[in-house]
Design goal:
This protein is α+β, with helices and mostly antiparallel strands. The chain has a single domain, classed as Alpha-Beta Plaits. The protein is built from three helices and nine strands, in the order αβββαβββαβββ. Helix 2 links the parallel strand 3 and strand 4. The termini are far apart.
């Protein structure tokens, strides 16, 4: 009896997110490759603590654990998948300034690119319903202060349902 290949959700997302275009960060003319990672909140803090030493890992797409996969014969489904889209910021900015800079210039364009990617990818089916929670001046501390390895960031938490087909992914062109 032949068994079907198990679709590995994180690997599939990583492969697709590699096709995302470079992003400009804040007012800089420098472009940055989107960084993808996955884990729970503790793992995210550890990642940020280690990753920001050399170059900030932003913009960041973080697949938040836990989630549940439903595997079928030729596809798999994830209901209520959560992605955190984040950029580093500082605590001195007011929300009005955050919305005009990090959200408008980085986070919303990143979300639009992800939605375009999902609609264009041959292995993805989404229902086009996204629940979005804004997190200006977000950190994992109650006070919103920077602490051991946890930087202040502006973030969007995006929840949605997604299906992946068991087929070879074809690169998506953003030009």
């Amino acid at each position: 009896m032949a068994s079907s290949k198990i679709i590995r959700f994180e690997e599939s997302l990583g492969e697709m997110f590699n096709d995302l275009p470079m992003m400009n960060y804040e007012d800089s003319s420098d472009s940055y490759k989107v960084v993808f990672g996955c884990g729970d909140g503790k793992e995210l803090n550890s990642f940020l603590k280690l990753a920001h030493r050399d170059t900030p890992p932003y913009p960041l797409i973080w697949l938040l654990y836990p989630y549940t996969e439903l595997h079928k014969k030729k596809e798999m489904e994830v209901s209520n998948c959560s992605l955190i889209l984040a950029v580093q910021t500082n605590s001195s900015m007011q929300n009005k300034e955050r919305l005009a800079t990090t959200f408008e210039n980085v986070l919303y364009p990143l979300l639009e690119n992800i939605k375009y990617l999902f609609h264009s990818a041959n292995i993805v089916s989404v229902n086009d319903e996204y629940t979005i929670v804004k997190h200006p001046n977000y950190s994992h501390s109650e006070e919103g202060a920077e602490h051991a390895g946890t930087l202040i960031w502006d973030a969007l938490k995006v929840d949605f349902d997604i299906k992946l087909k068991d087929t070879c992914y074809r690169k998506v062109n953003f030009n």
